[in-house]
Write a structure and sequence with these properties.
Layout lengths: L3 H25 L2 H14 L9 E7 L2 E7 L2 H11 L13 H17 L15 E12 L5 E9 L10 E2 L7 E2 L23 E7 L9 H19 L1 E2 L5 E11 L1 H8 L68 E3 L1 H23 L3 H7 L9
Parallel strand pairs: 3-9, 9-10
Antiparallel strand pairs: 1-2, 3-4, 4-7, 5-6, 8-9
Helix pairs in contact: 1-2, 7-8
Length: about 375
């Protein structure tokens, strides 16, 4: 196992020094000089991944735009060569435990999604590592829209950590150092994002407002390259061919409707006409109410029966599932929980309980007054 904790600490320390020096320099120097100083510090501390920078050329009518990006195949080749532990849950290649870990993951994943194309090549499952891609809209420092596309390995860096026991009545154990045990696997959501998320491209949307299809075109450029890497594999430093396998595209509902040109999305929700409003099922049409939350809801039987787009999506060359291609679109837990249920529903519920005078909540949040007087 690699001491990824030390690397994480080093990145944090070097980054802190870097931005402190750049701020000091930028306060008394033009931006161009601050940028040059920034570049020198990055090179000095070896903070660059040294991935080749490619260019995407997009043309619409008389207009042409050229945007820099990192090909997923180039990025994965660099990680496999120099930082393989970032892809294999903390294990460095070559390591016999990697095969046990990958086989354990795919056996567990097959229970949930046996139709995935990866299972058509069982002989290379021990050399296939899972990844996801992620798309989202952000904001620049001037609050301008920014389009972002990134790649994330699935296996967490804290895989094969110490055993832990759940405190609930079921008393389920998880963790451990046996990489052949699926309970040893962890999600890749711990440690610095420098070590878990890898940017493919980003661009300010407003700057390219003359191009209607630049987002989908740029996305297809990256997806096609990733699809080739999934099919052909990527050699590691030891000469072993490893195969990335994409198990989903994480994105929020807005990005999902935008890049997939969906005919079924949240944008169809209304109270006048009955329209399908979910990319996964037929919820919203006549006889299939989307508000039904029962275990026998009609929309459950319609999940992934049909595709939610009319035109071929940018990710069509990614090997996935021929019968249920819409399953490739995954709901982003950050938007669903932290920016959705947690921020809106749970917060509102807590305040309602306080307002209604629930003793435990009222005393915890308003020990000296009643919320009606706040």
């Amino acid at each position: 196992m690699t001491a990824f904790g030390e690397l994480d600490l080093s990145v944090s320390v070097y980054t802190t020094i870097l931005f402190r020096k750049v701020r000091q320099k930028g306060a008394v120097a033009p931006i161009s000089e601050a940028k040059r100083f920034y570049d020198r510090v990055v090179r000095k501390f070896g903070l660059s991944l040294r991935v080749p920078i490619s260019e995407y050329v997009h043309s619409e009518g008389p207009h042409t735009a050229t945007l820099p990006y990192l090909k997923p195949s180039d990025l994965l080749r660099t990680l496999l060569s120099d930082y393989s532990f970032l892809l294999f849950g903390g294990c460095s290649e070559p390591d016999d435990d990697i095969e046990k870990l990958l086989l354990s993951f795919w056996r567990a994943y097959q229970v949930e999604h046996p139709e995935h194309e990866v299972f058509k090549n069982p002989e290379r499952l021990n050399r296939t590592f899972p990844i996801t891609v992620h798309g989202d809209g952000g904001r620049t420092q001037k609050k301008q829209p920014l389009e972002i596309f990134s790649l994330q390995p699935v296996l967490g860096l804290n895989t094969a950590s110490k055993s832990m026991q759940c405190r609930c009545s079921a008393s389920v154990g998880f963790g451990g150092t046996d990489l052949g045990d699926p309970f040893a696997q962890h999600l890749n959501s711990k440690y610095s994002t420098f070590l878990t998320h890898f940017l493919i491209w980003a661009f300010p949307r407003k700057q390219y407002s003359n191009f209607d299809d630049i987002l989908t075109g740029f996305l297809q450029e990256a997806m096609d390259d990733l699809g080739s890497a999934c099919s052909q594999g990527i050699p590691s430093k030891s000469g072993t061919i490893f195969y990335p396998c994409c198990i989903g595209f994480k994105l929020d509902m807005e990005w999902m409707a935008k890049v997939g040109t969906l005919t079924r999305s949240y944008q169809n929700v209304g109270h006048v006409n009955a329209k399908a409003c979910c990319a996964e099922c037929d919820a919203g049409i006549v006889g299939v109410p989307f508000e039904d939350m029962n275990t026998t809801a009609a929309w459950i039987r319609t999940r992934f029966n049909t595709i939610p787009w009319q035109h071929t999506p940018p990710w069509s060359n990614i090997p996935f599932d021929l019968d249920k291609p819409a399953k490739f679109l995954r709901r982003d837990s950050f938007h669903i929980f932290r920016l959705g249920i947690s921020r809106n529903f749970l917060a509102s519920s807590i305040y309602l309980l306080i307002y209604m005078g629930c003793p435990s909540f009222s005393q915890a949040f308003f020990p000296f007054s009643h919320p009606q007087h706040c």
